Amino acid sequence: MDPRNTPGYRPHRSLTNLKRIEMAGLDNADQERIEAARALLQDVSLLSHPKHSGDADTQAVS
């Protein structure tokens, strides 16, 4: 299976690319846009790959 077809691949790659941008040479508006995009992509990553915890509230009902 092609890894590009897995859920969350594109948001993950986008977030990785945004983290590589050198912020020092950008103006304030561009820096704010990149920070906002990073935050949104991190939220999407959390939604597409939720962490499994051992909470008792997440029990399956059969």
What is the arithmetic mean of pLDDT? 77
Main beta sheet strand tally, sense and closure: none
Total separate domains = 1
- The separation of the N and C termini measures 32 Å
Strand content: under 5%
Query: What Rg do the Cα atoms give?
Result: 16 Å
- Number of strand elements: 0
- Helix tally equals 2
Describe the 3D structure.
The chain is mostly helical and 62 residues long. It has one domain. 52% of the residues lie in helices and 0% in strands. It contains two helices and no strands. α1 packs antiparallel against α2.
Question: How is this fold's topology laid out?
Answer:
Elements: H1 9-19, H2 28-48
Helix pairs in contact: 1-2
Summarize the structure.
This protein has helices at 9-19, 28-48. It has 62 residues and is mostly helical. The longest helix is centred in the middle third of the chain and has 21 residues, at 28-48.
